[in-house]
Here is the input.
Amino acid sequence: MSTETGETETNEVETSESSEVALEDVFGSAIERREDPALITGEAEYTDDIQRPNMAHMAVLRSQYGHAKIEDIDTSAAEAMDGVIAVYTATDIEEAGTPGDLPVGWLLPSLKTPSHPILAGDRVRYQGDGVAVVVAEERYLAQDALDAIDVEYDRLDAVVDPKEAVEDDAPAIHEWSEDPTDTETEDDGEAEEVPPNVAFDWEIGDADATDDAFANAAHTVDIDLTNQRLIPNAMEPRATVAEYLPGTEELEVHMTSQNPHLHRQLMAAVLDVPEHKLHVVAPEVGGGFGSKIHHYPDEALTAWCARELERPIKWTATRTETYLTDAHGRDHRTHAELAMDEEGTVTGMRVDTYAGMGAYLSTFAPSIPTYLYGTLLSGQYDIPAIHCQVTGAFTNGAPVDAYRGAGRPEALYVVERLMNLGAKEVGMDPAEFRRHNFIPSDDFPHETPVAVVYDSGDYEPALDKALDMLDYDELRERQEELREEGRYLGIGFSSYIEACGLAPSELAGQLGAQAGLWESGVVRVHPSGKVTAFCGTSGHGQGHETTFAQIVSRELGVPYEDIEIVEGDTDEIPQGMGTYGSRSAAVGGSAIATSSQKVVEKARKIAAHQLEAAEDDLEFEGGEFSVSGAPDRAMTIQEVAQQAYLAHDVPDDLEPGLEETSFFDPENFVFPFGTHAAVVEVDPESGEISFERYAAVDDVGNQINPKIVEGQVHGGIAQGVGQALYEGAEYDSNGSLMTGSMQDYAVPKAEHIPEMDTDSTVTPAPQNPLGVKGVGEAGTIAAPQAVVNAVCDALEPFDVDHIDMPITPEKIWNAAENDDSQEEI
Amino acid sequence: MYPPEFDYERADSVDHALELMDEHAGEEIELLAGGHSLLPTMKSGLASPDVLIDIGHIEALQGVETNGDGFSIGALANYADVDDSPEVWEGATAFADATHRIGDVQVRNRGTVGGNIAHADPASDLGGALLASNGTVVAQGPDGEREIPADDFYLGMYATALEPEELLTRIELPETGENDVGAYAKKPSPSSGYPIVGVAAVLHTDGEEIESARVGANNIMDHGVRLTPTEEALAGEPLEEETMEEAAEVATDELDDVMMMEDLQASAEFRAQLTRVYTKRALLGALDRLESAPPAAAD
Here is the structure.
């Protein structure tokens, strides 16, 4: 596949070394990431790099079947092997009196929560379900011993498609304690039978108002689409090193975590360890994309074995285990409809989705296809009536949970595919149809019919910028000319919105979250004036050590080089919620900024006292307090820090020291938005696609570090293009994963990714002190439908309305080949 | 998921390798050359040999040599050895082109031509090129040396005419004439990089007309195959784009539909379509190359 790129100028951001940047410019500059030298040279320590004296290794025996009863497990041969220390099954966990059941962190009213044991007892429900663990002196030996365990299975019928899973004749995956078919009471009092694989039924919006909109519509369009199951591919597989200290009864767990405090809280319950005796550390973590948020069986099992054997234990997933057991993403089957009036104004949207949950409910799984999906279906548009119904379905697959974007890519894919069909139906240009339906810039805050209030937005400038970047009118003319030559160019838009920095905690609680959504930040100014800041977020590639230091530098006027950032350790940080959902800058960064501001206020009191001036008469700039009108009377913040710790002469009502803590709980989500546009050429004969352009305009509010923003956009688009064209987890009808390795699952390579032209608009977020939004997921949310819309646009002469992702060459060839309208062209 | 224990032997010479093979006859033996196909299959449990005989250090099997009327490619020659040879690019262009398109730089620096051909993976890039280049596989056994023409070499998926006691020692490729040209066109899998379809073409011409052609394809059947209707359609025709397009149309006409490969990457029907498309690209690539001398990688 050739990629026609390089002809266009990209707006690549140039980086600077921090020493070249003036103090007042540190915030907002593209400073080189300070974490990179250690990561690039291999100096950084990941979980698997950790060694402990007398450390043993754990391996997990996993079901090769998608659905089966366990008749018998014989571990005697494995136990007899030299170097094997122990073999454990569910029986051992139970006999030890360990709760051993993974909790669900988000509850919905109709939710059924099956038991999710850390080792399967009498039944396995997906390929990869753990049935036993081996602990051995060597990693190799532990793997070999797995082969010596004899498990007798009685295979059961499996179901892998979420829509088929809730049909009456589908094999039931869980046995409910009540009747095999549960019942629920409808509003009219009549009992309705709920098929056993229904995890929940959930709806949002006004069904009647939406029905009215469709009844009165001049135009309607509808679409059936699949948002395919995806496998996360963090470069570092999940891993755990656990050590039990009998003297203090402490359990220390180093693990690949995006949220060590959450893991501590959950693991404390799963293993019945007092929370204050459990120390969780996330060392360097090599990517997560959501997959390291959740609490899995394996990390708990490693810690359980360490406590049981009183030896340090290491477990590192193989790539095969990663594919089988990391929580997958997406897996929706959706029917969606759009209603419009004569003028092409959207009047209603109706969405019916079946969401695959996999075999068990992963930690935050119920929230993903509900509150992170249905609430975003208004997109950037002023839509009076929306109704969305979601059925969560258990299937014989790996559990599905948050994966980069988490519900929002699924929502925007529906919205932006419908907008393309709507434009075609009413005969408008897709860009102008979008513009026509945008929420006007003077209509913010804007409350949507799906329960969220967009605090800010200004959508037309981003669209206009994208159109300028494409030279859109000229491009449409060229498209026409090329079609006459039998070449098929396509232009696809994605005007996306996302909601990130999920908040506030009170609202999350009302919606079923079993956690708060604030973040903590501690800013400690040392006696020398150097600073260490601690945050409850837990970066794993995002560059927090750089961006958070930029925040502190601006707030305190302390040189960037004098600031250290610490994350990822439950013993160092008060409490934390972690890094996911593009929340770290908006929530964690705000916590650190707030603490920094508190530090300045305390420092001001000390400075005022020592300078014998009123607090209000002090100016603070560039890290120095000075008396208004008498600039010679001044103290630097470093001098204040020294005085704060000497405590020889501080105000009477002030404690010594210079350190502050904040728990920042935002009032609302932040709402990044933008327009992405893909230009592709499609060859109907081979089904191949080549990118001509990819233009991305993102509004993520104020940018702390534009190079890191750019990198996040690039990576997000790469992942979105991966979903659009290459990736897709496939199970066969027995629940066996057919795409179980990189040999068969196409993670996009550099050659598959278009050259990207990025730009931005800046609409600061009104509800946090930094005016920042979030950017970690923007590209992933925006890109798939930009690419799919482009391909469908290219194939318009072939009468193609839709092709499901991943759009493989074979699907394109089939779509073009089966076209009936070809004779007329 | 890791290989169970196995014995390891290192051969110092071809004769030593044959002795070791004899010594371990009756056990499951795998020969280790570059290891690029073997080690992944061992790690994934698809192969669990009792003994690995490492032939990777046998001096006599290294390198690419030019002799009077062709090339002798040692079994242990790396893909990069072939790709780096201007002589092979000039005189066996399709084969050089195919080695150039295998894997990535690391793979080309370590993987061996002999290992690739003896392994007989249907997806190997060299299957079609060996056939199109009219190569000969040379094997050494207890009774001496034996030459196997490419047309008789591939028997099926991972199955060849090599006897268990034989060692593939080199590949002989004839050098093409001044007016001859070749090319390889490949549709790589986005996941593995292996071809979903690969087509190699060698055109013997008088500068204006095609005198004869050999066209070989890999990963469309269970082993490399020649596309004879295309070869026949090319013979005696002028060197024009239209010739190539028409000849590509008939590429799959004599293939048994039932035996066409079908997998997650492509259905049999689409594979047939890709075979026609990539035959056309190989032929047009060869035509383009006639204009440029000496031939070089298209990228």
User: Anything to note?
Assistant: The first strand of chain A starts at residue 56 and ends at 62.
